[in-house]
Amino acid sequence: MDIDAAINALKKKIGKSTYSMEGSRDFSDGTCDCSGAVYYGLRKAGCSDFGYIPSTETLHEYLVQNGITLKAENEPFNMEKGDIIIWGKQGQSAGANGHTGICIDNQNWIECTAWHDLGETIQNHDKRWVMAGKPFFYVYHYTGRTPGINPNVTYGLHVKGGDWLSPVVNFNPVNSDGYAGLPNHEHDMLYARVDHGALKYRVHTIEAGWLDWVTSGNPNDPVNGCAGMFGQTIDGVQMVYLTPSGEYYRNAYYRSQTTKRADWLPEVADDSDFAGIFGEPLDRLQAAVNIRDPFGEQ
Question: Membrane among the record's keywords (predicted)?
Fold first, then answer.
């Protein structure tokens, strides 16, 4: 990847572009937005065709597909030319809630912004970050490494007043092996674990609200290896995947059904929300760890 080609291509758009999330997003009509500009520059640098222009949400995936590795996550870092910074916590950065640009040296970045109607512009990154309220951020830098294989998540539910059901690995949309839980039944215990990295999870019960986070998954250890309380009905679940340092950032994606309504509820990424509806017993759960939302691929 030639980062100078990306920066030079974007410099040519300074003074010749207007910020818009509703236009072409690729400068073809004279408008662009922040993630569209970064994508435009990276395509000029030799990066792959994503199939569509990414948002600040999906830009993470595009970067890692092209060997652009997570360098820092909301922590002090040494800025250098070629750093790609994304503002806004993944899962919560859609639309105007996120922003991104490419660093051209150790202080400044090139960005497409609605601020002062500038469009494509070079600004001091840290001043702009403070101006924006110091949002959560990610820093990526090209290393040439590929993403590797997503971890497997194994999980299972215990039927209230009954037994543990067979464990499930990841999910599929085809049959009963693709989810944990027994349809139209209540559940009171959950365990989950991953084969790489770490997973923390917790459940909400109708009787007691949110219970403590759990970091191991073992159905034979109801105290430390499971989330829940025997006899209490689970109506909510949260999961968070803890990506090992230096690896490509991944989320736990999960979704559920309840005994009160048909079809799956919207999927959740990490702790951006929770799976379930308070007051409605959870009867099915699906989960996976991935760079991108696997449920959106169905």
Answer: no
State the residue for tokens 């999960």: 254
Q: Are 197 and 153 in contact (CB under 8 A)?
A: no
Residue 54, domain CATH: 3.90.1720.10
209 part of a folded domain:
yes
Range of the domain at 34: 3-142
What is the number of structural domains in the chain? 2
Calpha distance 43→63 (Å, rounded)? 11
Pick from 124, 34, 30, 31: which is nearest to 79 by CA? Answer: 124
Q: In whole angstroms, what separates CA 36 from the centre of its chain? A: 19
* DSSP-H helix ranges across the chain: 3-11, 34-44, 59-65, 125-131
Using alpha carbons, select from 104, 2, 13, 103 the residue that is nearest to residue 47: 2
Checking phi first, is residue 10 left (phi over 0); if not, alpha (psi -120 to 50) or beta?
A: alpha
Summarised one tens digit per residue, pLDDT across range 19-69 is: 999 999 999 999 999 999 999 999 998 888 888 999 999 999 999 888 898
